[in-house]
Design brief:
heterodimer, A: mainly alpha, ABC transporter involved in vitamin B12 uptake, BtuC, 18 helices, 74% helix, 0% strand, B: mainly alpha, two-stranded antiparallel ribbon, 4% strand
């Protein structure tokens, strides 16, 4: 019995799950302490509000509708985290998911609002725009040796200002927001295929949600089951070895960033083509979606299927943050908690190392005692 | 023209301070992507000090206290990186990114909580410091000299001397090049790396307060520091991890950043009729182009980003 239990703890997936749960728990705990420090009176209520999110409503129909709202924003987050994950598996840190998301939003909205294109064209435009931006970082990395983190950050800001200028052409006259998508160009809205009725008639629930899950599966297949995925990962491990084996390491780097960019760009289209949100053309900071993608990717143990769960969780608490009592706390408390969780994810490797060492020591001790007293050891078996 | 010079010098001071901070950290072997978060925290420390200092305190005392507060908070915050990267061998890029997000989020939560506690209707994340800010400025014939410019210059000289002329600096650099070799001659690599990260926290925090007081007299903490920490990293790479070159690079980048603030004052630029967004993008575009041309022969410290493991060969 005990032998089985220790082998379960040795399982990498179990360890990852444990580590992620620990990160979440610690993150929430520290967040709770922060709430206590700000205002002890409402702290318990606030943290339960964040965790409960849509369940704060009593009516099941309203709950379902708000679950739909959370899911609508989970789809782009999942795409962003897949983008980060994909690049990370190939040894690149795609902090530019945020910028690729921004150009994706810009391209899809401009195609939809200015030209009234059908939704699949807009979606494709977003993917291409994101991929192009990603490819720039990849090119700079492959040919000019520019660290992808730095170039991505610069591109994040450049794309933010560029998209603001572009979307200024299709904004409402009296507000800084872009035109209402559903009224202006109904053909550009992602089809719902009756999914909305499942969530008490939430019209923002579209094929984006199942699509994002399919993409997660596709990313998993690509990374684990194809030659291309293997080559990309090999390039990430050691680009000199990859080159020696006849792989085109420069092409692989660029391709990786392009795919990662495409994923993030597609994510933006999945949100903005539902009409759930309008782009604010005076935005002065890069949207946090891409950065939260980093949190979700690492919290999901860098596994495409794990990120489905972790993306939902991150979005769940982010949405939950909107419900806290504004007279006492600010909504940013959930940003604070998810940032804490990312920070704690840095310790996951150490956690696994410590756990394995502990297990080793336990096994050693057990082996020793079994040796010293074979009869007793035999009984325990 | 004077205005352009003034903005250029102040932005260059920010970039120089922060880039020098990054330089110390990287020479010790720790990549500090979290400079942005450190800047926000330093800015928060300084802004709070300015807010809560009673009126009528002499200017010199204000300057001293504000600088101290920024440095202290920046150093404390950089400990997050030091502990994770040095003791727990965490991925430095990941931790740095988390620190950037955490810095802005924590500062926003804190400032909003403080504002709402004072006045229930005030949900902004703004700290005002119009009065105390004057302590930093000296008007010399239309040119607003800022004491921070002098401070940046001092930091530059001190950094140069520390890195190249003292035992400490040379040992620090050894830890970033070949920590195993450094350890073999009795240098405590962990201690040196702590020192490197803490110095980057100190300079980063100082850079943060300079940045938020550079242009405006109130600051919205939701905005963080608008990617300046990363611009500083670009300055550092462009400056090839050498203090003197960093100073020159900072002046160049400061110029382009300043142009965004004052371009309306030049007839030629105004006649070109470019949208304001172009000037906002300019520093980032320039840094990308510059990096593209200089990174090929970049001479980064060899062991940067690799956690030091005593048992490794």
């Amino acid at each position: 019995m005990k032998q089985q239990k220790s082998s379960l703890l040795r399982n990498n997936a179990v360890q990852t799950l444990l580590a992620s749960l620990l990160c979440i728990l610690l993150g929430l705990l520290i967040g709770y302490v922060a709430l206590l420090l700000i205002n002890p009176a409402g702290a318990s209520e606030a943290i339960t509000t964040i965790i409960k999110n849509f369940m704060t409503y009593s009516k099941p129909a309203t709950q379902l509708k708000n679950l739909g709202n959370t899911l609508v924003k989970t789809a782009p987050l999942l795409m962003c985290s897949l983008s980060v994950l994909f690049a990370y598996k190939v040894g690149l840190f795609n902090i530019g998911a945020a910028g690729q998301y921004v150009v994706g939003a810009g391209a899809s909205l401009y195609f939809a609002l200015a030209w009234g294109m059908p939704w699949y064209v807009c979606l494709l435009a977003a993917i291409l725009a994101g991929a192009a931006l990603g490819a720039i970082s990849g090119l700079l990395k492959a040919y000019c040796n520019v660290n992808e983190v730095i170039s991505c950050i610069m591109l994040n800001w450049i794309s933010l200002y560029a998209v603001n200028t572009l979307l200024n052409l299709v904004k409402e006259e009296t507000s800084p927001y872009t035109l209402n998508l559903i009224n202006t160009s109904p053909g550009s809205v992602l089809p719902s295929l009756g999914l909305g009725t499942l969530f008490s008639g939430n019209k923002y629930v579209t094929i984006a949600i199942p699509l994002s899950v399919l993409v997660a599966l596709a990313v998993w297949v690509l990374l684990e089951k194809t030659k291309l995925g293997y080559e990309l990962k090999a390039t990430g491990c050691n680009k000199f070895a990859a080159k020696y084996c006849g792989m085109r390491e420069k092409k692989n780097t660029i391709l990786t960033m392009a795919i990662a960019g495409g994923l993030a760009g597609m994510g933006a289209a999945m949100l903005f083509l539902t009409g759930f949100e309008q782009w604010q053309c005076t935005q002065s900071s890069v949207p946090s979606m891409g950065f939260n993608g980093i949190a979700a990717a690492f919290l999901g143990g860098l596994n495409p299927l794990g990120t489905i769960l972790s993306s939902y969780f991150i979005q769940h608490i982010t949405n939950g943050g909107a419900y806290v009592d504004k007279t006492m706390y600010s909504a940013q408390i959930s940003d604070f908690i998810s940032a804490l969780i990312i920070y704690l994810c840095g310790f996951v490797l150490f956690f696994k190392f410590a756990l394995n060492r502990w297990l080793d020591r336990r096994d050693e001790k057990r082996a020793k005692s079994a040796q010293a007293d074979p009869q007793k050891g035999g009984m325990a078996e | 023209m004077i205005l352009l010079l003034q903005y250029m010098l102040i932005f260059a001071s920010v970039l120089m301070l922060v880039a020098l901070g990054g330089c110390f950290s990287e020479h010790s072997g720790v990549i500090n992507i979290g400079l942005e978060g450190i800047m926000v925290m330093g800015a928060l420390g300084g802004a709070l000090m300015m807010k809560f200092l009673p009126a009528g305190v002499p200017a010199a005392v204000i300057i001293l206290l504000v600088v101290l507060a920024s440095i202290l908070l920046g150093m404390l915050y950089s400990l997050l990186l030091a502990v994770a990267a040095i003791n727990f061998k965490a991925d430095q890029t990941l931790v740095g990114t988390a620190m950037n997000l955490l810095g802005t989020a924590a500062a926003t939560v804190f400032v909003k909580a403080m504002n709402t506690a004072e006045d229930v209707d005030n949900v902004s994340s703004i700290i005002q410091y119009i009065g105390p800010k004057k302590a930093f400025l000296v008007n010399i014939g239309g040119f607003e000299f800022n004491w921070f410019m002098l401070l940046a210059l001092i930091a530059l000289v001190v950094s140069y001397v520390t890195l190249y002329k003292t035992r400490f600096g040379l040992r620090l650099m050894a830890c970033g090049e070949h920590p195993q070799a450094a350890d073999s001659v009795g240098i405590n690599v962990y201690k040196m790396r702590y020192a490197g990260v803490l110095i980057s926290g100190m300079l980063g925090g100082l850079g943060g307060i300079v940045y938020i007081t550079a242009g405006v007299s109130e600051w919205k903490f939701e905005n963080g520091v608008a990617g300046f920490g990363f611009l500083a990293l670009a300055v550092m790479i462009f400056g090839q991890w050498k203090p003197t070159r960093i100073a020159l690079a900072a002046l160049l980048f400061g110029f382009f950043r300043a142009l965004g603030n004052v371009y309306t004052g030049f007839d030629l630029l105004k006649a070109m009729n470019l949208p304001a967004a172009v000037y906002n993008m300019l520093p980032y575009i320039i840094s990308l182009v510059v990096l593209a041309f200089t990174s090929k022969k970049s001479r980064a410290p060899k062991a940067e980003g690799i956690p030091y493991d005593k048992g490794q060969r």
